[in-house]
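Running this now, will post back.
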Amino acid sequence: MTEQQPRLDHHRHETGSLRRTNSEAIRAGLGFILSQQQGERWPDLGLPSGEGDARITACVLARLADLPLHYISRRLEQQVNQALDWLLEARNPNGGWSSSSGQDDAETTAWAVLALRGHRRAPAPSGALDLLRRCRRLDGGFAPQPADSPSVSPSLKSTPEITAVAMRALGEADCAGQEFLSTQLKFAAQPATCLLVCLEILDWDRGLAAPSLLQQVTEFVSWVEAAGAMEQALLLRCLLRLRMQKAWPMAAQLRSSQAENGSWPGRDRRKLSGPLQFELDDRKVLTTATAVSALALAEFQPGLYFGSDLPAPQRLPAF
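Update: finished.
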């Protein structure tokens, strides 16, 4: 029995599903994540020759950076440090990280910056931040590759998910970028994409997001339904950030969908519509890392009130 595979005092529902406490679910999830690490990184089995490994590894590391210290075992710390070393070595000579064909990629670079920063491994490399800024488009958003790259098609457009994570990595969120995100949230059809964008906005540094954008995020989170495990994990993180009461039943629902091996199911890539793009929910390890981070965030708010942070109206004295 390893450090990340504790004795679980759980039992089964009548349906056969496991019932774990929050702590047990987190530790079981960490055990699965560590078991999937191969050669100091987490591989993307959907792309050949390890082309997507940097992105998968950076995303997992960024999520693990949210863990409270009492979940950081010796084994977890060792494997995380190995993955961070590998990620630093995978950086391209010109400053960024790539996910395919050796081309610098804004999303991979942004997640790598967040992973290194989250684990206090290194300050954000200036070359990586410069790369992200070169991916900016006239509409205020960020595209996958820099506009001045010779191999980039002029038709390559900004995407809301890259924009939100790039702004978080840069610590910059100007009016043009926020207006782009606001417009995209109004018309986006994929709940998973909207939830990811909302979460990244809520994870921005305090004071960056305009009140109008935060209100839009709050309204979306308050009514959206989460269909799969990844969407539930993203929604739970959003609900906890906003201190909404719906967080607690969502956390219970997420725990109930955890498999016996500690994983949560990822979405089948073949079911995704639209152009072939990296999706945060198409790998079990990413879904599990996001779920673990969401459940860990819940432990920071076990007794907090939920709802508005504004003071409650004063009661009139009774006569």
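The longest helix spans residues 74-89. More later if anyone needs it.
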